[in-house]
Amino acid sequence: MEEKIYHLGIKALIQNKAGEILLLKVNQEKFKNPTPGSYWDIPGGRVLNDSTIEETLSREIEEETGIKRFDSFKHLATLISNIEIPLTHEKKAGLILSIYGCVLSDPINIQLSSEHTDYAWFSPTEASGMLSYKYPKEFTEKVNKLNFSS
After folding, report:
1. b (16+ CB within 10 A) / e for 76-90
2. pLDDT tens track for 44-75
3. By CB count within 10 A, which of 46, 54, 72, 88 is most buried?
């Protein structure tokens, strides 16, 4: 039996002072193998060679949202995503996600990259339901109960 290959992704669950969570609508046209329909996600990306978790988190947040700084961040969860990444026609890699809660105290103008088509702020309950496409139930239940802005 062959071992499964995994890539490590760092994700940011960004919450504002009102307790809302920033979600980004994924641009399916940017994928080699798009899935039908669209879905919402949180900013993030895979760790590059010689990058730390904090560098990856900062880089991906800025690239995908234009946010250059956040007030604080803390580890929320590490999990195996429901999504697989195609490596070749026959081989796929799983995706391990390390998710960090990031708090913004100041309002900010979001500037989307081409990876996303829209953004919105949602309550933890709304965000929980919208993230269930990519994330397992144990994480979305955590999001539903989330309040780390205070």
Report:
1. bbebebebbbeeeee
2. 998 888 999 889 999 999 999 999 887 778 99
3. 46
The two tokens of residue 6 are 């995994």
Domain locations along the chain: 14-79+103-144
Strands 40-41 and 21-26: antiparallel
Q: What is the pTM of this model?
A: 0.86
Which CATH superfamily, name and number, covers 14-79+103-144?
A: Nucleoside Triphosphate Pyrophosphohydrolase (3.90.79.10)
Whole-number Å distance between alpha carbons of 80 and 58: 22
Distance CA 92, CA 105 (A): 39
